[in-house]
Amino acid sequence: MDAPVHDRPAISPIAEGLGPHGSALYIGGSEGARDLGLLRRHGITTVVNCAINLDINYVETPSDEPDVERLAAGFAGIRYYKLGMIDGEGSPETMMLGAYYILDGALRQSMPKRPTYPFRDGGNLLVNCRGGRSRSVALVSLFLHKQQPELYPTLDDAVAAIRERRQLMQDEWFETPKPMLYEAARKASAWIDLIERARHGDPQC
């Protein structure tokens, strides 16, 4: 049975003060992620797409003319990261761990000052999937729990906050996020703790 359909914003503000530039973080679905005017109005310069079944072409300045054999490639006004997770069973749990570090990298990257990197540092960030209900919620919950533990001491705390800010109704909580993605985020949280301890020289790691 399909999940109930509820009206909610194309993108929803979730958190502020992230990364070295104090960026704001949003969650959205496909409609928000492909609305360039909406992204610009919210100062969104970076999009992290969690979905494997959704592709968005942000290329504004093709490097050459596309033809029937070669698709458009070139620069875009949006920095774009594609993760490709499945909304349900099928993705290795380690993909959630990788997604966490890609999201962290998207916030922290410092762009070279060269013509081939026509991006500015900073700006806000959108995490999207097809509906902005499951994959995005799992990843952003993990990220907020690890990055702002004083606000979100547990993963469940982060999920509860995002459900409210994304206007996810209680009758859809059973799949926002899907249980296997929730569990992947829990395991990734434990792995991140181990990685961070090893980075800081813990001899037990």
> Going by CATH, what is the homologous superfamily?
Protein tyrosine phosphatase superfamily
CATH architecture annotation name = Alpha-Beta Complex
Widest sheet: strand ordering: 1-2-7-3-6
- Estimate percent helicity: 25-40%
Secondary-structure-based class equals alpha/beta
User: Over all CA atoms, what is the radius of gyration?
Assistant: 17 Å
Report mean pLDDT, rounded to a whole number: 92
Element pattern in H and E: EEHHEEEEHEHHH
Counted by DSSP, the helix tally is 6
Q: Which consecutive residue ranges, at least 5 long each, have pLDDT under 50?
A: none
Q: How many structural domains are formed by the residues?
A: 1
Q: Based on DSSP secondary structure assignment, what is the total number of beta strands?
A: 7
Organism: Sinorhizobium medicae
Protein name: Protein phosphatase
Domain Tyrosine specific protein phosphatases: 121-169
Summarize this structure as a short list of keywords or feature phrases.
205 residues; alpha/beta; Protein-Tyrosine Phosphatase, Chain A; two-stranded antiparallel sheet; globular; Protein phosphatase; Prot-tyrosine_phosphatase-like; Tyr_Pase_dom
SSE topology:
Blueprint: E1 11-18, E2 23-28, H1 30-33, H2 36-41, E3 44-51, E4 59-62, E5 74-76, E6 79-85, H3 94-108, E7 124-128, H4 135-147, H5 155-165, H6 179-199
Parallel strand pairs: 2-7, 3-6, 3-7
Antiparallel strand pairs: 1-2, 4-5
Helix pairs in contact: 3-4, 3-6, 4-5, 4-6
Task: Provide a quick synopsis of the model.
The protein has 205 residues and is of the alpha/beta class.
